[in-house]
Structure formats: structure tokens, C-alpha cells
Design brief:
This protein is an alpha+beta fold. It has one domain. The chain is 37% helix and 27% strand. Strand 1 and strand 2 form a beta hairpin. Helix 2 packs antiparallel against helix 3. It is globular.
Length: 123
């Protein structure tokens, strides 16, 4: 089993997170602070979820990840991907689709990401 979490946008790889690499202490602390903040509640659409479970947290973080990717916020992308990879150890892929401004997110637990291979064309 691969220990990689891949994030794709419209089928194109954006980020790969290798769970075999140890997260530095300051980044682990940041993830703990994210959990503490979410303990206070999260807003999903018009609703406030006061005691979000891990699935609700994952959807919330994935939605923020989609926004971070679309706004080219690399630091936030890294932090949110690290959160998902460390809190949902069986998550294999985050598939984000952006079609005409409509964003959909699929969390994939049962399918390892297949790295894309460049195709060389001969002239």
C-alpha cells in the first residue's frame, strides 16, 4: 500500500504528501492548533457545526484546500494537505473538480493515486 496522499484539480496532480516523512514539531503544533480552532465550531455554508466529527473536519479542510489551490496559496495548501494526511491516515486522494466555478470535492480512501507519466511525442 502506498503511503502517499495526492491532491488533484480537474484530474491534474497539484500536491503529493509522503506520509513516510516526519512532520517537523512546529508543523505538528500547527495541526493541533487547527484542531483546537475547529473544536470551537466550523461554518459549512450557512450552518455552524459546534462539535464537528472527523469527516466534517475533513470536508471543511478539503474545501479550504480547494480555495487555497485556486488562489495559489502554497503555504496554506501545504498545511491543509498535511492536516488531511495526518488525521485521515487511510485517505489516498483528494479529487477537486472546478467546472464553471462549481467546486466539487471527493475524498478517496480505497484507490491509490497513479502518478501521471509524461508522454513523449516524436516529430
Amino acid at each position: 500500500m502506498d503511503n502517499l496522499l495526492a491532491v488533484t484539480l480537474n484530474g491534474i496532480a497539484q500536491l503529493e504528501y509522503d506520509r513516510n516523512k516526519t512532520l517537523p514539531p512546529q508543523q505538528q503544533l500547527y495541526l493541533e492548533k487547527m484542531d483546537q480552532k475547529m473544536d470551537e465550531g466550523i461554518q459549512v455554508g450557512e450552518d455552524i457545526i459546534t462539535n464537528p466529527d472527523i469527516q466534517q473536519r475533513a470536508q471543511f479542510v478539503a474545501a479550504n484546500l480547494a480555495n487555497a489551490i485556486l488562489s495559489d496559496n502554497e503555504a496554506m495548501c501545504a498545511a491543509l494537505t498535511a492536516y488531511l494526511a495526518n488525521r485521515l491516515t487511510d485517505l489516498r486522494q483528494v479529487k477537486i473538480n472546478n467546472t464553471d466555478g462549481e467546486i466539487s470535492i471527493e475524498l478517496v480512501f480505497d484507490e491509490d493515486y497513479q502518478k501521471q507519466v509524461p508522454v513523449q511525442f516524436i516529430h
